[in-house]
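Hey, I'm writing a tutorial for new members on how sequence and structure tokens pair up, and I'd like a real worked example in the thread rather than a made-up one. If someone can provide the structure for the chain below, I'll link this post from the tutorial.
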Amino acid sequence: MDRGALVTGDGELTGPELERMSRDRLVELGEALDDVRVVSREPAARSADSRGERRSRLRVTLLLVLSLSFAVAFLAAYLFWPTGYVPPGTPAHTAYLLYTPLLGVTFFGAVGALGVAVIVYVKSFYPDEVAVQHLEKGPSAEQDRFTAAASFARAGEETGFGRRTLIRRLGLTGLGVLGLLGGVVAVGGLVRNPWRRGAEAPLWTTGWKPVGGETVYLRIATGDPTEITKVRPEDLASNAMVTVVPFRETERGDIETLHKAETAADDPVMLIRLAPGTTVSPLPGREDLHYGDFYAFSKICTHLGCPASLYDTQLQVVLCPCHQSQFKITEGARPVFGPAARPLPQLPITVDPDGFFVARGDFPDPVGPGFWEIRRGSH
């Protein structure tokens, strides 16, 4: 195709001239303007075979229906499936275990079935074309936009997408539902108001907050909510570290509450015993939060909330494996490397008359990543 035969005068074609051109003529112009050379073009085999076309159309329809079914199942599971902890041995424990796998299977089914439907449709109804194009940089001109629209319109006509109403509607509905799934996942955690409880809001408090004057012990996190192991100073060797979570004697035997303490995002604490004689420079206001050589810091990185629990006993540095933030324990767990900007919050600890470690109160600083109102919570 000679570009000069399609373009008149010294300038580009204008809107009125382009509107008077037929669709095929616009497609030819677009190919010439884009420096595209069609090497070969064969119509889709299924379009010429009515029986094969019906089979392909049925396959695509069934796949789109399957995708929509999985999408609806995902929404139902995400919004209505019970997620509260259920102890092993009870009838609802199996449903509790199935929540995460159910989300994975239904989401994969929705996306996968839609993807396969697109592939089947393209292989069945799109013409087999081989074209070569020379690409150049720069914005698209007005005539390029007209010719591109004409190319899409002709492709829709040739592939039957415009006249196959059911497939078109199911496909567009599937894309819309998948977009809805992404929106639900993105905003699902923002539905609840985090400030509803004021000073008792979750962003200000953790499971270490005293309730009713009851003693809060440091319990070793073993992953088994039925195993209660409180910590004494003699349980840790020099330069040792152990992960602990809050425990109250009234919670003994309450499997759900004990499990929640181990799985809560802001509860894990690193209890570290420094070597005797280690030089420590606590941050202002934290001078009396430790007990002897024992220091307790939040395990949650102040950058993006990853578990920062890789402890280098030689350098007294805690490393977050996600983005390599490092916190110097002997200097109040202040960040010395990486993107984290705040020190790890320190838990005030002491020992009760029976020799067990207990928390003297909640963290004086908010746990985890920073947020807009974090200064308001520094009290």
